[in-house]
Amino acid sequence: MTIGIWGLYDKGNFGDDLMAAMFFKFLKNKKYDIIIYNASSYLKEELKANSTNNIDDFVRKCDVVIIGGGGMLVNNSLLKFLLKKTEFQFEYSFFKLLKALKKYNKRIIPVSIGGANSADLNNIFKKTLFTSKYTVNGTVRLKSDLELVQPDIFTYLPDVVLSTYKFFPKSIEAKGTKKRIILNLKNKNATPLIETFKKYEIFDKFEVFSFSSHAESKKEFGSYEYVLADSSFKYAKLTDAINFLSTSDLVISSKLHVGVTALSYNIPFISYNGPQKAKEFLKEYGKVEWIESDPEAVVKKILSFDMNFLEFSPNNQNVDKSYGHFDVLSKSLSSI
């Protein structure tokens, strides 16, 4: 059987690449033939994977298509859709996938797809895809996501990225004597936090690195991530990025999956001015107090590090349940 993995794998985005790698490793272990749709050159090289950027050719060659995680249930505003090329291409890709599925009479298995606590989907092609006509079975990563899909064929399970450690066991340890903080911030909201770090001498008391989660080769995104001049990590290879994150004592991120990856290794994650999907994740994880928009509040937590983070008890129930995405996937594949 040939399995296709479809997602946003040409954008050089750490979170999407990570999920592609997890599904690829799982399916390869099961001895399936695998094709990844539109994978970047460096992702193909790292995974030694077959890929095509022709959607018609991709669907024709596959017996079934896995939608490999990501914010597939997140709505884009009309303004973003009209003005941002990347957002337009993302929304339009669902039409192209649906057209090819119809042509070749193929179906999909969406795994760990997610939204942002929206009331409805504003893309008719997404709505059509995530029904029993085209979906074998699927899983979502937030309880509220069940409102956006056909609930009798979808199962809620905690974000699949919580299972990262199962596919990428921790292999290195930090060598410094100071606790390590990793910042994954957007330029537009980084300055107040950085200034507060300076005010309270956080850079002297802790080892602080910035983490850029988009590959430098993807220029269409511009330099939107904050970079510390003398202590930064720039994503270029997935394994290196995961290893680097696993050496931290605390991750502060304005995104979702950099922080969720950290939690997979029992490392605390503060969502600082993060997206709604990150806030919803932390609520379900049981750490609403790690959702912050006030830089003073963030620093206050850091200054009382041992009290707030050293005795952090990971939500092992959520971590264990997250592997259930692969159980659903296995069962769905066996039914085809």
Report on the structure:
- The protein is globular and about 60 Å long.
- The longest helix has 20 residues, at about 85-105.
- The strands form 3 sheets. A 6-stranded parallel β-sheet has the order 10-9-8-11-12-13.
- It contains 16 helices and 13 strands.
- The termini are close together.
- The protein folds into 2 domains: about 1-155, Rossmann fold, CATH 3.40.50; about 165-315, Glycogen Phosphorylase B (Rossmann fold, 3-Layer(aba) Sandwich), CATH 3.40.50.2000.
- About 45% of the residues are buried.
- With about 325 residues, the chain is α/β, with parallel strands linked by helices.
Order of strands, main sheet, comes to: 10-9-8-11-12-13
Radius of gyration: 20 Å
Individual helix count = 16
CATH-scheme architecture of the largest domain: 3-Layer(aba) Sandwich
* Class from secondary-structure proportions: alpha/beta
The beta-strand count equals: 13
- Strand % is 15-25%
N- to C-terminal distance: 10 Å
Helix content: 40-55%
String of helices and strands: EHEHEHEHHEHEEHEHHEEHEHEHEHHHH
Major sheet attributes: 6 strands, parallel
The low-confidence runs, each spanning 5 or more residues with pLDDT under 50, are: none
Mean pLDDT: 93
User: Which CATH first-tier class of the largest domain would you pick?
Assistant: Alpha Beta
Number of domains: 2
CATH overall fold name of the largest domain = Rossmann fold
Morphology call: globular
Organism: Anditalea andensis
InterPro entries: Polysacch_pyruvyl_Trfase (IPR007345)
Protein name: Polysaccharide pyruvyl transferase domain-containing protein
